[in-house]
Design a protein that fits this description.
The complex is a heterodimer of chains A (about 250) and B (about 280). With about 250 residues, chain A is an alpha/beta fold. Helices cover about 30% and strands about 25% of the residues of chain A. Chain A has a single domain, classed as Glutaconate Coenzyme A-transferase, CATH 3.40.1080.10. In chain A, α1 packs across α2 and α2 crosses α8. Chain B is α/β, with parallel strands linked by helices. Helix content of chain B is about 30%, strand content about 20%. Chain B is globular, with a radius of gyration of 19 Å. Chain B starts with 7 loop residues before the first helix and ends with a helix. Classes of the chains: A alpha/beta (about 250), B alpha/beta (about 280). At the A-B interface, α3, β9, α4, α5 and α6 of A face α4, α5 and α6 of B.
C-alpha cells in the first residue's frame, strides 16, 4: 500500500526515537536488541553518531559499510559491559515506575506460571552500563505497578543495594509504540517525555498500569527528515519495522 | 602423547546419578548433542545441569533426568523459549539456580582458578541475589568498602563440549566465530569429554584454522570422541548450520505427552549411527 508522502508512519517515528536515545554517546557499543531498536541504532550511526561501535548480531563488530573491525565473542562482550562502554536497549515483558524490568518469568520465579527468557544479561547490563528499554506494545500488562521478577534493576532497587549498585547504574529512556518516557531526576519515577504524532496524554496514561509523571507541556516526538527516511529505506528495505509497529 | 579416543557409550559410562554436568555451546549452537542424546537414553538421573542452555537442557528435562538447572537462559535461538524446559519449570519438576550470563562466566572462572568466588557488580539489586540466598555478597576489604556479589565457583564433576576438530590426545579446535565458554567448562570440571566433527593428526590442526582457534589443550580433557554431525540439530559453523526444520519438530514435541512419546520413539530410542542415517534420509 502506498502511503502519501505527508503521512508520518508510526514505525519511522519509533526508529527516530530509538536513534535519538544514542545521541551524544560517542565511541561506545550501541547494542539495540530487537527489530526496530536495531534499525534505529544503525540509523543513529549513519545520521548523526558516526563513532558508535555496533555488532553484526553475532561475534563481530562491523562498521557502517559492513566491514569487520574487531572480534567480539560473548566473552569479550562482558569486558565491554563491565567497563561501561556500552548502551543497551532491551525489550521486556514488564516494567515498573522505577524502571525495574522483567523478562525472566511470570509469577513466582521459584515456580513460575510462565517461564520466560530467564535473567539473561539484564542484571549485569543495568548495573554496569547505560540501559534503555523498547516496548512495541505499550499496555497495562507491560507497565505494571510491580514486576513479578526483577531481572533489570530499577532506580529504587539499585539505591537499596547500596553505592556499589548505583555507581554506574543509569536507565535513560523507554521508547514505546506510543511515546518516549524517561525518569524524572528527583524520585526517578517514569515520566512522559514526548508523544508520537496522533497519540494523546490520555492514550498513554490509559495504557500504563501505574501513575506516570506527566509534565504540563509534552512535546511531540519528532518526525524523520527526508535524509533519515532515505536511510531507513536503505537499512530496512523490506519494511520489517512496519511489521513490528503497524500504523495506528 | 596419550590416546584419549573413546566411544559415545564409554563417555556416558563415566556418568553417575547426582553428578553436576556442565554442557558447552550456547543456546542452540554447537551443543554436544550426540553425547546428550546418549545420556538421555541412559538411566543416569538426579543430575544438576549447568549450561548456557538450549535443547541439551530441554531434552534432559523431557526425559526426567534433571534435578536442578543452573542457567541464565534456556533458548533455541530461532525459537526464543525452550518448550520442554518451560514445561518442566512450570510443572515444578526441576529446581533452578538462576544467574546473570556474566555471573555464570565468573562462576566457571572461579572454579577453574580454584577460588571460592569472584566479586562482581552483576546481580546487585536484582532478584538473582534478592530471591536466592545461595548467592551472597562480600564487602571489599579495601578503602572503597563496596558491597559486591560474591559469585560462587560452579564446580563441575564433568564437562561435555563439542568442537569442530580435535586430535587423539584431546587438543580441541573451534572453527566458528565464537568459542562460547567451552574452554572454561573444561577447566571448571574434574573431568572433561570433548566430542568433535573430526579427529585429525596433531600436525594437521593448523591446516583449517590459525593458532588462535586452538583454545582447549589436552591439559583439560580426559576423553575425545569423533561424532560427525554430532551437534545436530544445533549449529556447528562452519561445518553446518542449525537444522531449523528438525528443531521445529523437536519443539512441537513439547505440546503433549503423546507428541513427546512419538518424537522420542523416532529420534531418541535409536543409537547415534541410526539417528544420523535417519537424519540424512530426511
Amino acid at each position: 500500500m502506498t502511503q502519501p508522502l505527508t503521512q508520518v508512519r508510526r514505525a519511522d517515528v519509533c526508529c527516530i526515537a530509538i536513534a535519538e536515545v544514542f545521541r551524544g554517546d560517542g565511541e561506545i557499543v550501541a547494542n539495540p536488541i530487537g527489530t526496530i531498536p536495531r534499525i534505529g541504532g544503525l540509523l543513529a550511526r549513519l545520521a548523526f553518531e558516526p563513532d558508535l561501535v555496533m555488532t553484526d548480531g553475532e561475534a563481530m563488530f562491523t562498521n557502517a559499510d559492513g566491514a569487520v573491525e574487531a572480534w567480539n565473542p560473548y566473552r569479550t562482550m562482558f569486558d565491554v559491559v563491565w567497563s561501561g562502554r556500552r548502551h543497551v536497549i532491551m525489550g521486556g515483558s514488564q516494567l515498573d515506575p522505577y524502571g525495574n524490568h522483567n523478562f525472566a518469568a511470570i509469577g513466582d520465579m521459584k515456580r513460575p506460571k510462565a517461564q520466560l527468557l530467564g535473567f539473561r544479561g539484564a542484571p549485569g547490563n543495568t548495573i554496569n552500563n547505560v540501559t534503555s528499554y523498547w516496548v512495541p506494545n505499550h499496555g497495562p500488562r507491560v507497565f505494571v505497578e510491580s514486576v513479578d521478577v526483577v531481572s533489570g534493576v530499577g532506580y529504587d532497587r539499585a539505591a537499596a543495594a547500596g553505592p556499589a549498585a548505583t555507581r554506574f547504574h543509569s536507565l535513560r529512556h523507554v521508547v514505546t509504540n506510543l511515546a518516549v518516557l524517561d525518569f524524572e531526576p528527583a524520585q526517578h519515577r517514569m515520566r512522559l517525555r514526548s508523544l508520537h504524532p496522533g497519540v494523546t496524554v490520555a492514550d498513554v496514561t490509559a495504557a500504563t498500569g501505574f501513575e506516570l509523571v506527566v509534565p504540563d507541556d509534552v512535546p511531540t516526538s519528532r518526525a524523520p527528515t527526508a535524509d533519515e527516511l532515505a536511510l531507513l529505506e536503505r537499512i530496512d528495505p523490506d519494511g520489517a519495522r512496519f511489521q513490528e509497529v503497524p500504523d495506528a | 602423547m596419550p590416546d584419549k579416543r573413546m566411544t559415545i557409550d564409554e563417555v556416558v559410562g563415566e556418568l553417575r546419578d547426582g553428578m553436576t554436568i556442565g554442557i558447552g555451546g550456547w543456546g542452540s549452537r554447537r551443543k554436544p548433542m550426540a553425547l546428550v542424546r546418549a545420556l538421555a537414553r541412559s538411566h543416569v538421573s538426579d543430575l544438576t545441569v549447568v549450561s548456557y542452555g538450549g535443547p541439551d537442557v530441554g531434552l534432559l528435562c523431557a526425559t526426567g533426568q534433571v534435578r536442578k538447572v543452573v542457567f541464565a537462559f534456556v533458548s533455541l535461538d530461532s525459537i526464543a523459549l525452550e518448550p520442554h524446559f518451560r514445561n518442566a519449570r512450570q510443572a515444578g519438576t526441576v529446581d533452578a539456580l538462576e544467574l546473570d550470563e556474566g555471573m555464570f562466566l565468573l562462576g566457571l572462572q572461579a572454579a577453574a582458578w580454584r577460588v571460592p568466588f569472584l566479586p562482581t557488580r552483576a546481580g546487585l539489586g536484582s532478584d538473582v541475589v534478592a530471591r536466592q540466598p545461595e548467592i551472597r555478597t562480600v564487602h571489599s576489604p579495601y578503602d572503597d568498602g563496596e558491597e559486591l556479589v560474591a559469585m560462587p565457583a560452579l564446580m563441575l564433576d564433568v564437562a561435555l563440549v563439542h568442537q569442530n576438530r580435535a586430535d587423539a590426545a584431546g587438543n580441541a579446535q573451534f572453527l566458528g566465530p565464537d568459542l562460547y565458554f567451552d574452554d572454561l567448562m573444561c577447566q571448571a570440571a574434574a573431568r572433561s569429554f570433548v566430542s568433535c566433527e573430526r579427529i585429525v593428526d596433531t600436525a594437521d590442526l593448523l591446516k583449517e584454522g590459525s593458532h588462535h582457534t586452538l583454545r582447549i589443550s589436552r591439559l583439560w580433557t580426559d576423553g575425545v570422541v569423533e561424532t560427525p554431525n554430532g551437534a545436530h540439530f544445533t549449529s556447528c559453523v562452519p561445518d553446518y548450520e542449525r537444522d531449523e526444520a528438525f528443531q521445529r519438530g523437536y519443539a512441537a514435541s513439547a505440546k503433549s505427552p503423546e507428541a513427546w512419546e512419538e518424537w522420542r520413539r523416532a529420534w531418541l530410542d535409536l543409537d547415534e549411527g541410526d539417528y544420523q542415517q535417519r537424519v540424512t534420509a530426511g
